[in-house]
Amino acid sequence: xxxxxxxxxxxxxxxxxxxxxxxxxxxxxxxxxxxxxxxxxxxxxxxxxxxxxxxxxxxxxxxxxxxxxxxxxxxxxxxxxxxxxxxxxxxxxxxxxxxxxxxxxxxxxxxxxxxxxxxxxxxxxxxxxxxxxxxxxxxxxxxxxxxxxxxxxxxxxxxxxxxxxxxxxxxxxxxxxxxxxxxxxxxxxxxxxxxxxxxxxxxxxxxxxxxxxxxxxxxxxxxxxxxxxxxxxxxxxxxxxxxxxxxxxxxxxxxxxxxxxxxxxxxxxxxxx
Length: 273
Ligand SMILES: NC(=O)C1=CN([C@@H]2O[C@H](COP(=O)(O)OP(=O)(O)OC[C@H]3O[C@@H](n4cnc5c(N)ncnc54)[C@H](OP(=O)(O)O)[C@@H]3O)[C@@H](O)[C@H]2O)C=CC1
Ligand SMILES: O=C(O)[C@@H]1CCC=N1
Fold this sequence. Notes:
- The protein contains 13 helices and eight strands.
- By secondary structure, it is an alpha/beta fold.
- It folds into two domains: 5-163, Rossmann fold (3-Layer(aba) Sandwich), CATH 3.40.50.720; 175-263, Orthogonal Bundle (ProC C-terminal domain-like fold), CATH 1.10.3730.
- Strands 3-2-1-4-5-6-7-8 form an eight-stranded mixed sheet, sandwiched between helices.
- It is globular.
- The structure holds NADPH dihydro-nicotinamide-adenine-dinucleotide phosphate (NDP) and (2S)-3,4-dihydro-2H-pyrrole-2-carboxylic acid.
- Residues 8-14, 34-37, 40, 56, 69-72, 74, 78, 96-98, 118-121, 173 line the site of NADPH dihydro-nicotinamide-adenine-dinucleotide phosphate.
- Residues 98, 169, 173-174 line the site of (2S)-3,4-dihydro-2H-pyrrole-2-carboxylic acid.
- It catalyses: L-proline + NADP(+) = (S)-1-pyrroline-5-carboxylate + NADPH + 2 H(+); L-proline + NAD(+) = (S)-1-pyrroline-5-carboxylate + NADH + 2 H(+).
């Protein structure tokens, strides 16, 4: 990748993308990070040898791509304050902020091209997934650059309707937290039944890893894979009967809908939607 990328915000997700890009061979000299918190910058510099600056405009100055990795609540102020700089060099803007519409970011920036996307934290290990959205003003070249950057840290796909980004955010953006919760709950259950915390955690994590890996590699559907674990009259059936009777599918579906609604609400609260 030959583009120079400026990250605005070096928090959880900025770090995940930077770490993933460096691990996949991006030259650290091509990455500059701006963040107001000096210890964040120091640790990014120590871990990944990227350039760091405390001033956003300094990061944008020589960048081909500006990757906006601040909270949705901060995005408007950040982009507006960079407008002059952005209009000077017209970099491609890539936003990972939940909820905020591409058109709002484009307007705050003074009209440059904006690709909106939703990556997730496993990007740090190179096994993220990112959905991208671009309106018709974004050139093929800029679509391709965005896909290359996010594609370096996991799978990518494009969505045609921006409204789908709310659902994407609820499924894969927030999704790692659901799986971590499941790991936590399995660990707690094992511990409450007498396993040591270390053993319970190892069993839960390796099971999550193996199941995800198997679901990814197998040509069978997740439902078929589940059925293959579930012996008639056996242990898994006992557990699944309990979960189904507790309405776990409806609960999960409502939880994901709540995340999608929050994404749409962020657009209304913080933008023009
Ligand atoms: N966390 C996740 O799994 C995912 C997050 N996202 C999106 O990524 C974005 C960032 O989220 P996340 O990394 O979790 O949040 P964090 O709070 O961890 O990171 C945001 C970073 O931006 C810094 N910051 C605050 N104000 C400014 C500013 N004016 N200029 C530059 N940097 C600033 C923050 O510093 P300080 O802490 O000192 O305020 C912080 O280091 C959000 O928009 C979120 O919706 C998308 C996909 C997944
Ligand atoms: O919770 C959030 O709002 C962000 C977006 C997706 C994951 N984390």
